[in-house]
Structures are given as structure tokens and as C-alpha cells.
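help with this:

***
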Amino acid sequence: MLSANTRIAGGLFILLLFCQGLCYAQITMPKVFGDNMVLQRDIKIPVWGSSDPGSNIIAELGGIRVTTKANKEGKWMVRFPKFEAGGPYILKVYEKGKSEESVTLHGVLIGDVWLASGQSNMEWQVQQSADAENEIVNADFSNIRFLSVAHNKKLIPQEDISSGEWQLCDSTYVKEFSAVAYFFARKIQQDQNVPVGIIQSTWGGTPVESWTSREMLLSSPISRQAVLANSTLRDPEDFIQDSLNVLRFWDIVLNPQNKTDKIVSAPDYDDSDWAGIEMPRMIKDFGIGSYEGLVWLRKKVSLPESFEGKDLIVNVGYPEMNYSLYFNGEEICKAVWNSNPTHHYTIPAHLVKRGENVVSIRLAAIWNGGGIYPPADNLYISDGSSQVSLAGSWLYHKDLEPALPKTMDYHYRPSLLFNAMINPLIPYGIKGFIWYQGEANASEAYHYRKLFPMLITDWRKRWNQGKLPFLYVQLANFRKTQDLPSESDWAELREAQTMTLTQPNTGMACIIDIGEADDIHPKNKQEVGRRLALIANKLVYKQKDCIASGPVYKSSKTEGNQIRISFDHIGTGLLANDGNELTGFAVAGHDRQFHWAKAKIEGNEVVVYSDLVKNPQVVRYAWANNPMCNLVNSEGLPAVPFRTDDWKGITQK
């Protein structure tokens, strides 16, 4: 037998060999590089990764070979010379003398790469958008590629994304792509005839501060205090515990607990102690306060004899957030984040009974949302020729499942998404940025005047590709239409977005005409993507004959009891898009009381007046959450909301 000393010595020798093996790491590259990726044309293409410290690195692409040496930390970067659009190519990276251990990436195209970022309206998927089924079936664009960056949040800047890989744009993968980015990419690819790559880095419900670096936020008094306060949250144990709470949170939201899906949905379940509620309505209007959790709804509905033995259609209108639908105890659907563009489903014939049937809905009430939007006409069961309404009296009960754990909403905190979902992408070569965000900052719209340009400056500086094009979407019309002129935080946020056009090489797509009053996620993402692409065609690709913007306020002058307004970007003329009289204008005098105004087009100008304001001083247009406005140019692009006053707004604290 071996002595103890011999065994120890042998173990140490094996451990030494193991440690030596660890010192010779294989060559690696971050996940932003992969098969089927698109690299940016007409720039020196950066490629980077890690290897053995001091090793000689060789990279080959399209017959071009470049070399460098890894630094003492094993980090390396090469830059290929400028390529024209084309491909496919193979990218091969290896240490000198170890070509058999290379990282080899296939199907690489050279074209234009755009980083698409923002909150839920940029994250909104093709399968959730208008005409989704047709769009998915016809998506066959091998020259469009997407990299979707997985949600992640970190306390310090990261060198790699947590997951994500490049996908070809086809019917298999397109359904989960950002709809705005896809429709943008499709038009750019067709108009410019070059491969287009989209790096999608998005997270719903997040403010601009989450996407901005700590250093930039510390440079402004507007954001400095929030960043410093966030420093107290940098305890890794708290961060880990919160991550566990988030996992538990979503497990409860997505998966019925305590077998409620079997018990509560059953036709013979005793719901005699449940409270009554009229549907449709939002959970916040149930009279149960600021509730967060799962709410169950049940309704007994009598179906006519003619429905028996048939497959039926049930339409649950416009639900918000996550929900599950049950019919006579059987699950009909489980919808996650409005994953279906329409909310109608088939009830199999074998579940349909003559007389009384039971419909149950499990609704998630999270982030002050949840419920079913009106109108009531969209709640029904139909056999195709007649229908039975599901609107009216329902029963509901909350707290049948465990309470949702409290989370710190770290994804909402300053810089944490920048650290995990933007920093790892730098300095991947790109053509520019497309951005759709602002809803989460509406309550502090006045600060957005500074915060948004800060993000643009921050990203451009870090990419070090000059003043990269930054194209963004102005917030759509949303919420209830007001009968009288009123103040609006969304109008002030739109104003902040318009003011950002003073930043060089920026462009804004106005969509004040295609929102939906009852849905913060309007479905017509095709037109949003098209309008962004129009801006790119004009601003970036220098297409001179392209009209990319609707009328933009230029100047005004008072003429007696009228105000005459001039615009830029009128095309060949101004008109009302519905053929009726112009709407959306309001005027005020020295008393600052606004009244709806009459407006008429005179040549390339608009004259505004009100019989109630004899000496008008200022005019506003489309200044509301959901304005009724119809001024467009010859291309049908809407006039950008504006005001001529600088009076203190409701978000200016």
C-alpha cells in the first residue's frame, strides 16, 4: 500500500496538473458573435474575445487575415478592414499554431446592423401584432437576422450577455421577434438591398434610466440622487434573494397553485360566498384597493339547445396581462403577456352541455394592471350564427392562491439593464439605434428632456463610431379622450421627445394617429416600423425624394383674433386625413384658459381661432393623452403634437 505521504504527494501532483490545464483556456468569444450573424459594412469591423495571456490571435474573414496579441488578462481585439455588403462568409478565430482549435462561425453576412431597444412596445412580438398569422406565414427573408438578448440585470457592467443567438428570419423564428424592429428591417432590406441584422435588447415597463450607464447618470443632478440611493442595494445577497423572489413570483403567476385550475374551475365548485362584479372592467375598479395577486372569475351561462354538439367560439375581449380560460372545468387557453393578437378560442363540442355551463377565468393582477377592457360586445360565446353574451354579472374571489412575493424591481433601477444588456454589446459594429420607450417616464416627463439626450450621448460615446443615427418612436395616443382641453403627462413626454430632435443625427416617428384608447400596446406595428424606416431612408441612406415626417411646427404669429401657424415637412401640401374640418387645436389668452379652436388650411399654413378667445396668445395641437387630431401632409403622415407656450406643465416639479 502507498504511504500517506505518497498519496498526498500524488494528489498534489494531480491537482497541479489540473491547475496548469486551467491556465490554458481555449479561445472564446462573447455571445454577440455567432453563426448567421450580420457584421456592419463600411467600417473597420471589431471582433474580440479571450484566450491565453500573450497568445498570438489570428482571425480570418472572406479571405482577409488579421492578427493581434492577447493582453495579460487574456483579452484581445482585432479589426477587419471595411467590407462591402455581401456573404455568406466564414469567420475563423484561433491561436497561432492551434488552427484545429478555432472558433468557426458560419453563414456570416455583411450588411447593416441596428440595435433595437426600449420597453414593451419595442419588445412586442410579431405574433402579438395585427395580421399576425399572415405576417408569420409570409416571413421568408434569409437576409434579415435577429439576435434577441435575454432579460438580465446586473449590479456592475458585464462583458457578455447571459444568452441569445442569431436566428434567420423565417416563419419558425419571426413570431417572437420585435414587431417594430422586424417591420423596420423588412423595409430597409427591401429598399436598400443589403442584409440587415437586428440586435434586440428590450424589457417592458422600464424607464430610460435603466438603460443608461451609472457614470452618465451621476453627471446630472436629475439622476444623481437616484443612482446614489441605488448604491445601498448593492448587497449581492439581497440581489440573489430578490432573483429568487422573482422566480417564485412568475411561478405563481404562470402556474395555478393549490390545484385551483382543477378545483375552482369545476362546474360543481361552491362559489356561494364569492362577491359579485359587472364585467368587463379592470381589477383596479373592483373596489379591492391596490391589489396584486391572482383573481378568479366564474360565470354560469345558459346555452341554447342549438349549441349542443358543436364546436363553439368564445371571445374574451381585451384582457390585460396574463390569464387562463376554463370551460366546464377544462383549460381552453393560457395566455402570457397578450401572446395572442385576438382573444377568441375554440370550445370543443364534447365540453358543451345543454343548459347551464360554467366559464372561469384566472386573471393576474400585477403592476397595477389586470382585467378585461370594455366594450362589453367583445365578451360572448358563439356557434357562428348566433351568440350568447358573457358581459354582465360575474362572481370573483381573490387570495385563493399564495400571495405574490415582494420584489425589488431591480430591472427598474438605474443602470442595471445597461450593465447586463447593453454594455456586453459594445463595441459591436452597428449602423445605428432604433428606440421605442417613454411610457415608464411619463409621470416625470419634464426630466425626460434631459434624461433621453443623456442616453443618446452615453451610447454614442461608448460605441465610439461617431454620432450614430438614433431613430425613435414618439408615444402613441392612449387612454380616454377628454371632452375639454386639459393638461397631460403623455403630451409633455411627447414634447420632450420632440425636443430631442435638436440632438444631431436623430429622427422621430410620430404615431399619434395609430394608437388605441384601451391598449397601451397598439397592434399596428407595421406602420410604426415603416415610419422608422422612412426616417432611416432619408436621414441615414440619404434618399432625397423621401418624405419621412409629418408636418412639424415652425412658427406662429397673431393676426387679430387668429393665430397663423407655419410648418416644416409639409410635402406638397396640408390636409385633414379624414376629409373633415381640422380638429385637435386649442387656443388660450392671457388667462391661460384653453378652448377648442376652429382651424382652416390656407395654402401651406393653418389659421386657428375661437369665438371664446378674442385675444389669443398661444395655440396647442394634439395636446392630450389621446387627442382627436387629423392634420397630415400629402404623404398622410401626421402632424407632430406641439404647443407655442412654455407654461409650467404638470410634470415640472
User: Anything to note?
Assistant: Residues 476-501+512-653 form one domain. Residues 4-23 form the longest helix (20 residues). The chain is about 20% helix and 30% strand.
